[in-house]
Amino acid sequence: MEHTIHFDIHIEPARQGAYFTIPFKVPGDFEFETLTLKYTYDRRPLEQRPLENGLYSALPEKNIIDLGLIGPDGTQVGASGSDRNEITVSEECATPGYRPCRIVPGEWQVLVGAYKVEPEGTRVFYEVTLEGKSRRLLKGDLHCHTLASDGVHTLEELAFKAKRNGLDFLAVTDHNQLVSKAAMPRLPGVTLIPGVEWTHFKGHANFIGIDQPYDELFATNTPAEARSRFESAHTRGALISINHPFEPVAPFQFDLQTLPFDCIEIWNGPMRESNLKAVGYWQQLLAAGKKIPACGGSDYHRDTPFIFLGGPTMGVYADSAGASDIVAAVRAGHSFITFAPNGPTLEMTAGDAILGDSVAWAKVKELQINVQGLLAGDVLRVVTGKNSGVLFTAPSDGDIELTYAMDEPGFARVELLRAFLPGLPMLPALISNPIYFDAE
Ligand SMILES: [Zn+2]
Ligand SMILES: [Zn+2]
What pLDDT does residue 440 have? Predict the structure, then answer.
């Protein structure tokens, strides 16, 4: 979906030396990811003046028109003098001189600076192109540490590492420390998401996607104080994940019934017993009728055997590469967890529903499952509230498309098991969020 707006203006010589604005509208009936603004005008005469040494000198400019962009809230998005004929802005990226921002609907304005205008005036042609959001699979890691807490790398180093490992996004979650989005470096192709691992002697939780989840100190001494941090973060729109709930050195001991949260980190770093316990706990909640997404993250601090950025990787179906859309997709459970950035991937639908969505069982009973990147011997099982059955064993490497019929309301999720090491039990290579089939 692309939407283009054209407009032009004739600038009289009397306006030379003045600034003024031209409004244009970003429509609200569709969500847009990027805005590109181009403009042209007759800047230089065509003739060039020959010089003695065989070179040519451009004649002085006839017109010089400066460019700027103002958002619907009236603030400056950026200004580029007359140096650029084209600028682009999105939530994650912007042409230098402009700030990244969401392309929200409303009245935006081009800032026109009539620095020089020839005696007969000049016409300036503007073109605004709005590129619509579209759902895509992005890979990322929701849990890592820099040397601002107990990691060993800077944020910049982690961003480069994420890119090298094939990740599209990275939530940075230092213990009780947060770097605001504005203060984060920008690396094209990697969306950095602000976050903090709220760390207490009785449990850890990630607050992701906003700059300031609470105004008070992180430190709390009573369950009521702890709850107030969660409630503040939740009210302000943070994505809250309950981290490594069964990790022996830092289990989650607060009462989950009393705290608002969005997802449970069932896969923290390498797959191991504490993660399998978390999967079991999550399964109990799902079987009890709760709709709670699972999430995963490497908890990366430094390179050690079996620990790397993107181990595990979240595969997230997000509407754009913007941090807010990635966080929204994780919150909606539009995701699966795979053991590495190059691990298997999954597309699972039921009618129009994707991972994390709900459908009415009376209307849709069939699940479409599409797994890519299988290895021979991989076992795919479908887990519901009642049972877990093997649907497919891969005879060879490759991809597979399968269907699964829901014979009653509930939920269905997928686990792909793999023999990572000969002689050891099979372990999950991928765990999906469920699709929920509501009884009505
Ligand atoms: Zn932790
Ligand atoms: Zn951590």
Answer: 79
